[in-house]
Amino acid sequence: MTLTEQLAEFVVSMATRPLPEEVEREAKRAVLDWLASTIRGGEALPAQAVLEVARRTMPGHEATVLASGERLSALGAAFANGAASHVLELDDLHQASTFHPAAPILPAALAAAERAGASGEAFLRAVVAGYEVGIRLAEAVNPSHYRFWHPTATCGVFGAAAAAGAVLGLSYHELADALGSAGTMAGGLWQFLDEGAMSKPLHAGKAAHDGLLAAELARAGLTGAHAILEGRRGFFAATADAVDVSRVTDGLGKYFKILENGYKRHACCGHTHTAVDAALSLRQRLAGRAIEQVEVETYQVALEITDNPMPRTETAAKFSLQHAVAIALLDGVAGLEQFRPPRLVDPEVVKLRSRVTARAVPEFTAVYPRLWPARVRVTLSGREVMEETVTVPRGMVGNPMSDDELREKFHAMLVPVLGSEGVERLDAAVSRLGAGGSISELVRACVPRSSQR
Q1: Distance (Å, rounded) from C-alpha 444 to C-alpha 425?
Q2: What count of other Cβ atoms lies within 10 Å of the Cβ of residue 250?
Q3: Strand order in the sheet with 356-360
Q4: CA 200 – CA 191 distance, rounded (Å)
Q5: Residue 120 pLDDT more than 60?
Q6: CATH of 3-260, one of 3.40.50.300, 2.60.40.1930, 1.10.4100.10, 3.30.479.10
Q7: Which residues make up the CATH 1.10.4100.10 domain(s) of the chain?
């Protein structure tokens, strides 16, 4: 069997096996966190641009755009929800694979489930299957793939196809075909970072759309390459210098990768989070004293992705290690407002940001991607030096958020949109998934009652 066929066999098997209790719990946590990013992210300009195009080109009444309540085709809803969920940089993160699984996988699964009238239980099983496929492939190609390719796009389309295929009840052969078609559509380059462009949420939306499309095409009889992964002109050969093929199938069906999932506290690139956590810890000891210099030591990939001392756009600021550390020291938080244009040009922020330097150190680079360490060293006006090192940011596996912390984030993001009662109603709908709860109940709870159609 090819690797694709082994993954397809696993996904099909998920349809008849109950989820272990801890796996179902983590799947619900992932859904809860994703809903917050998607509903709130729908307000952002990139998400609005995607939605405008989806309205014109993918009309229909099959599935719901969560941020607005309007209905489009399933492909249109997957596209719009995928982009919305990735725009705020607060969606989930699997560190070892450097992959954001929810943004491409959950929109495809939800659109397919809504159109098919699938149960909440079937939806959760599909989510777990999609996470398993996407994360395992991203681990296999990481870190060499990451130099040019964005795994949330490239590996996310495989996860989205697996999840959508599971919801649609594809056969083993159809799922292998769907994964083959997904692989030939995989794409997503990092060049947008050099220009502060808005392509990153597009990556997630397109992966969700294309994963669902691949599943639909397979059901209609379109075949796909079953050796799309390891074939001589396949995904591995095209996108990675080094591949650990064992990552794809080791423990498949026995251990679930969703249990390694992480959740973000800060509204910026995950590669800044250890430095932000270190800066927040230092801030408690600074007592408002003047800062002369800030030195950040991190791993090479973090430097390649986030070394931007003069960000000029909101997107660029979210990928600026210097800005993230500066606002953490000044504001004591790295939330949505800290990356808005007014904060980028605030003289106090500009002054401190100019004093932040960053460099990669070999000992930190050596442990990536297993760990993402950073050290922040602050020199005060009297030449006193304070430093803090963080190896695992809060929210990631090894330093996880509690259920209460995750719900606190969920409430903080959604109360401005849904109100307190609406947030409680949505929380309850998520908790009922897998226990008789329905997809229609979940979707209705996502939309403010004043906006429901």
Answers
A1: 10
A2: 12
A3: 356-360, 291-298, 374-380, 385-390
A4: 10
A5: yes
A6: 1.10.4100.10
A7: 3-260
- Which pair of structure tokens corresponds to residue 180? 């083959």
Q: Rounded to the nearest 5°, which phi and psi values hold at 390?
A: -125, 130
- Is 1 buried (19+), middle (13-18) or exposed (0-12) by CB count in 10 A? exposed
Residue with tokens 């946590």: 29
As a whole number of angstroms, the distance between CA 432 and CA 261 comes to 21
Owner of token pair 């397919």: 112
Q: Across the chain, which distance is largest between two alpha carbons, in Å?
A: 72
Residue whose structure tokens are 């996502």: 446
C-alpha–C-alpha distance, residues 131 and 148, integer Å: 22
Cis peptide before 101 (omega within 30 of 0): no
- Percentages (nearest 5) of helix, strand, coil residues in the chain: 60, 10, 30
Tell me the one-letter amino acid at 357. Answer: T
CATH of span 270-390: 3.30.1330.120
Cis ω for the linkage preceding 341 (within 30 of 0)? no
pLDDT digits (tens, 9 = 90+) for 368-380: 999 999 999 999 9
pLDDT digits (tens, 9 = 90+) for 176-233: 999 999 999 999 999 999 888 999 999 999 999 999 999 999 999 999 999 999 999 9
Q: What is the DSSP letter of 17?
A: S
Can you spell out the DSSP letters for 245-306? Answer: THHHHTTTTTS-GGGG-B--SSSS-GGGHHHHHHHHHHHHHHTT--EEEEEEEE-HHHHHHH
Q: How far apart are CA 191 and CA 199, in angstroms?
A: 9
Secondary structure class of 166 (helix, strand, coil) = helix
Contact between 378 and 294 under an 8 Å Cβ cutoff? The reply is yes
Q: Is-contact 9 250, C-beta < 8 A?
A: no
Q: What does the DSSP assignment read for 27-75?
A: HHHHHHHHHHHHHHHTTSHHHHHHHHHHHHHS--SSEE-TTT--EE-HH
- CATH 3.30.1330.120 residue ranges for the chain: 270-390
Question: Has this prediction a pTM greater than 0.90?
Answer: yes
For residue 66, which of 409, 428, 445, 447 has the smallest C-alpha distance? 447
Q: Among 402, 150, 395, 146, which residue's Cα sits nearest to residue 273? A: 395
Structure tokens at 222: 């379109």
Work out the end-to-end distance of the chain between its first and last CA atoms, rounded to an integer number of angstroms. Answer: 47
